[in-house]
Write a structure and sequence with these properties.
Length: about 400
């Protein structure tokens, strides 16, 4: 693997402290967090070379799992290998995990109180607006004018809206379709495709729900599957989680799920940390720990295992085509999830206005941060909710 040959100009302790601080204060979602890492570590401190950073970003986009966390793990790997990757990953994820567990405790303890319902009444609606803008940005950046990717996007959006769940095998099928279309393997070009026996996609979720295991085992398996099959930004995990947590297992209701997404928006660090909040609501602190470990362990392994080989094979046309197909499917699922969740969160005129206001503000003021919008929506909720539900 290509890394800088000279000795690192920073200690492992300095790098770990940097990521602990970023995990504590870094708002704005995965793209913003990746931007902070480039600014601080490449441009300002010059700890990481631009080439190493770009390799890490490409690997994070290629592998399933939360982008910002994988990029952080890779940057820890560059000079300090597995020890660096492990400590950086923990430092980055732990602060926001502790915050969502504290919020989970408060939600369970005081969830019946009007002020908390009022906050989530406003925030839940604003989150729909934020997710809509994120879906639009991802679509513009990744799909552009490619007709095949648009077809995949529209199919996945429709499937997500109709079934209110996400099918991991469709992501993989989309990747294979684009791979075969753009860079077909030799045996396809030679007309031997009929020699391949199409195996039906395994109904993993069906087998898991049928098994009568303790709740924590079920939680661990479900969140490991989520971490292993979800590509792209942190929001990509939302439709997948909705399908399993609400529709399939009935661990949470619609309102609790939207509140969990809102918690991810109002806390710093990776958006995916919403799994800790969901785990806490389902099975307390052990549930939060199992959900977070299940989600982040695959992304950790998907980063450190291929790291030595990525420089060699990451630019192959087949791999790039596969990634484009999976990304288009993931963005389609996000767009579908916005519609599914909007039906739950936008319950009256004020919530509809809040969602529209969030969209308008984000389009009008490019530098306006998402946490600022969430805070404003919380204050509006506190003001309006008691008047409507007295």
């Amino acid at each position: 693997m290509h890394t800088s040959h000279e000795q690192p100009v920073y200690t492992l302790r300095q790098l770990v402290l940097y990521f602990a601080r970023l995990g504590s204060l870094g708002f704005g979602g995965p793209v913003a967090l990746a931007g902070y890492m480039h600014r601080d570590l490449v441009d300002v401190r010059k700890w990481i070379t631009d080439a190493d950073y770009k390799e890490g970003l490409a690997l994070a986009q290629l592998a399933p799992g939360p982008l910002a966390a994988q990029l952080a793990i890779y940057l820890g790997y560059v000079h300090y290998r597995i020890v660096g990757a492990t400590l950086v990953g923990l430092a980055f994820v732990l602060p926001s995990f502790l915050m969502v567990v504290a919020l989970g405790w408060a939600y369970v303890r005081f969830g019946g109180l009007t002020w908390m319902q009022a906050v989530f009444y406003g925030v839940g609606a604003a989150v729909i607006g934020i997710m809509a803008i994120s879906a639009q940005k991802l679509t513009a950046k990744n799909i552009r004018t490619d007709k095949l990717l648009w077809a995949i996007f529209l199919v996945l959006a429709a499937v997500t809206v109709i079934t209110e769940s996400e099918m991991a095998w469709l992501f993989l099928a989309a990747g294979v379709l684009v791979w075969f279309w753009r860079a077909p393997p030799k045996w396809v070009r030679q007309g031997r495709i009929n020699a391949i026996v199409a195996a039906p996609a395994p109904a993993v979720s069906g087998m898991l729900s049928a098994a009568d295991w303790p709740l924590l085992s079920q939680l661990g398996m479900f969140f490991a599957k989520a971490g292993a099959f979800v590509f792209g930004s942190g929001l990509a995990i939302v439709p997948f989680l909705y399908g399993g947590v609400v529709t399939e297992h009935h661990w949470l209701n619609d309102k609790q799920f939207v509140d969990a997404v809102a918690v991810a928006m109002i806390t710093p660090g990776p958006v995916v940390i919403t799994v800790g909040f969901i785990g806490y609501l389902v099975a307390g602190l052990p549930g939060a720990c199992v959900a977070a470990a299940g989600t982040f362990l695959p992304c950790y392994l998907f980063t450190i295992l291929p790291a030595p080989y990525f420089k060699k094979y990451g630019k192959l046309p087949a791999i790039l085509a596969f990634v484009d197909g999976v990304t288009a499917a993931a963005i389609g699922a996000i767009a579908g999830a916005v519609i599914v969740l909007a039906r739950r969160s936008i319950v009256d005129v004020p919530t509809a206005l809040l969602a529209v206001a969030a969209v308008v503000l984000l389009l009008r003021f490019k530098k306006l941060s998402e946490p600022a919008i969430v805070l404003g929506a919380a204050l509006v909720g506190l003001a309006i909710y008691p008047l409507l539900h007295h």
